[in-house]
């Protein structure tokens, strides 16, 4: 079952919200849909891409925070030690910033299109920022 269509660069994915594990994060993100931004390759975390959100305060706290999202998992970091951001793991990730290891709320999981995660990550790494759009189905 999918809740969201994600178009990132030339790739499309379907994903489901993690309603039980991160209800507040899911509700807040749903209120932003459709959400359009650019996704760039991470600096410290490994095989991941992120959407920097600066000092944006969405009033969220930690729900089911993890530092080790699996490929296809999106986590939301509500800010604090580092800036607010959304991170997508496309391979091995230990979520971090220049301040050290961080943890974010796992709120969205890709269910279709996983074969395109590595190509998306490599495209962001070697070709730069990619447009990304999250839309409800």
Written account of the structure:
The chain is α+β, with helices and mostly antiparallel strands and 137 residues long. It has a single domain (4-136), classed as Cyclophilin (Beta Barrel), CATH 2.40.100. 15% of the residues lie in helices and 45% in strands. The strands form 2 sheets. It has an 8-stranded antiparallel β-barrel with strand order 1-2-10-6-7-4-3-11. Strands 8-9 form a two-stranded antiparallel ribbon. Strand 1 (4-8) and strand 2 (11-17) form a beta hairpin. The radius of gyration is 13 Å and the shape is globular. It starts with a strand and ends with a strand. The mean pLDDT is 97.
Strand-pairing-aware structural class: alpha+beta
Any guess at the CATH architecture? Beta Barrel
- CATH top level class name: Mainly Beta
- Count the domains: 1
Number of strands: 11
- Coarse morphology: globular
Instruction: Give the strand content.
Output: over 45%
Enumerate the spans where pLDDT stays under 50 for 5 or more consecutive residues: none
CATH topology: Cyclophilin
Q: How far apart, in Å, are the first and last alpha carbons?
A: 11 Å
Concise overview:
The chain has helices at 23-32, 117-127, and strands at 4-8, 11-17, 35-41, 46-52, 65-66, 73-77, 85-93, 96-97, 100-101, 104-112, 130-136.
């Amino acid at each position: 079952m999918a809740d969201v269509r994600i178009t990132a660069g030339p790739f499309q994915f379907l994903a489901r919200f993690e309603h039980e594990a991160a209800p507040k994060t899911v509700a807040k993100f749903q209120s932003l849909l459709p959400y359009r931004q650019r996704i760039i390759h991470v600096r410290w975390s490994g095989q991941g891409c992120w959407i920097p959100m600066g000092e944006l305060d969405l009033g969220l706290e930690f729900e089911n925070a993890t530092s080790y999202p699996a490929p296809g998992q999106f986590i939301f970091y509500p800010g604090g030690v580092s800036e607010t951001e959304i991170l997508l793991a496309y391979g091995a990730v230990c979520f971090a910033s220049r301040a050290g290891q961080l943890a974010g709320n796992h709120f969205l999981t890709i269910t279709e299109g996983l074969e395109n995660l590595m190509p998306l990550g490599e495209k962001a790494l070697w070709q730069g920022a990619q447009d990304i759009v999250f839309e409800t189905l």
